[in-house]
Amino acid sequence: MLQYDMLLLRFGEIAIKGKNRPRFEKAALSHVKSLLRSFPNVQVVKDFGRIYVVLNGEPSSQVIDRLKNVFGITSISPVKMVDTNLESILSAATTFIQSLALEKETTFKVSARRVWKLFPYSSHEMNRLVSGPILNTCQHLKVDVHNPDVDLRVEIREKATYLYCEVIPAAGGFPLGTNGKAMLLLSGGIDSPVAGWSAMRRGLEIECIHFHSYPFTSKKAEEKVIELAKILSRYGGQIKLHLVPFTDIQTALAGTGQESLIITLMRRAMLRIATILADHNEALALVTGDSLGQVASQTLSSMNVIGRATDIPLLRPLVMSDKNEIIQLAQTIGTYDLSILPYEDCCTLFVPKSPSTNPNLGIVEKIEAGVPGLEDMIEKAVTGTETLVIKPDDEVRRKQDEDMIQDKWF
Ligand code: ATP
Ligand code: MG
């Protein structure tokens, strides 16, 4: 196995264009640094339109796994570095190809790029010069300059020459936080964590809000949400989780006896609380895991009546996704196994037999106006909100030892 010296991280097209570039690059750079804290030997270097991670002996595959989570980075290539002189380049290129243990008839091409113009051979000449010894040593390989299986890049720079051929897809999207902040309504289900990841991938910083009906809902259900937020924090670095006491409101809404509208009423109350929390935390939007038509509360008609409870943008990243697609994403980002644990959510406690799929806004508003003290209860839920700071697993433990500012640990 070849020992790689460095990783080359590329930005997406959009991120590197225009006047936003310095801001995007800075955000991606700090995200890279924050995800690599547990690899003390790596050095992170920014270059024009790229980031280099010098490994200094750290294991490339583990570092790559971390870096695949950096939003705004479209691909990663592990790089072998070699002295910039012809002899070293030719011998290292041959060893590089040999180390790939390619099958018979595999096609390759060499794509040399002379970045350092004082190097005595042109890019074109280098393509030929590098291919020669490879073909001599690996006689089972063939050259195909149009559609090769392996494209060996040789970047000739003054200080070193970079050899690489692998291009590993990364998260893409926009660097974290470059599109502002939103509050994610995080339930214990499959959808909302995926919605949160999608929002982060679009460059949104997120804070999570979870409504619990303790003691109707168990501590286990809360722990599950904390674990979900922890997984999201692997992508977002540090994430806040606001735990909102929802029992009184839920009980009062259930007291209206409007069984078929109870979910609509609860969702509206959640949005109103979330809007206030967004205001307090300088977030400009709410994010939910709604998917059109998935359940009664997610028909267009329900979404309309529920959505009117807030006056800030309500983002629903999964609105047009199929459940299968959402499940697949949940598996990829690592939230699925947790999401399917069977702990009750505050809403599942009051699931009506026949929830309304076509609620009427006027009627819903009238019912709300008839709930005594609803406004006060919403205020009280906001003031009773407990905020946790969630960090990826490894750091949680360390910080806990240091007895840090955390309100509460699990
Ligand atoms: P999920 O899988 O995200 O729970 P779902 O398909 O089960 O979604 P609902 O339970 O109707 O759908 O919830 C719709 C959305 O409302 C959720 O995606 C989430 O954003 C929000 N939500 C529901 N319950 C809660 C809760 N207890 N705390 C915070 N947000 C919630
Ligand atoms: Mg749910």
From TrEMBL:
Which of this chain's residues are annotated to bind ATP? Answer: 185-186, 210-211, 267, 289, 298
Record key words, sorted: ATP-binding, Cytoplasm, Nucleotide-binding, RNA-binding, Thiamine biosynthesis, Transferase, tRNA-binding
Domain (THUMP) ranges:
61-167
SUPFAM superfamilies, per the entry = Adenine nucleotide alpha hydrolases-like, THUMP domain-like
Q: What is its EC number?
A: 2.8.1.4
Q: What class of enzyme is it?
A: transferase
Name this protein carries in UniProt: Probable tRNA sulfurtransferase
Give the source species. Answer: Fontibacillus panacisegetis
Whichever gene encodes this chain, its name is: thiI
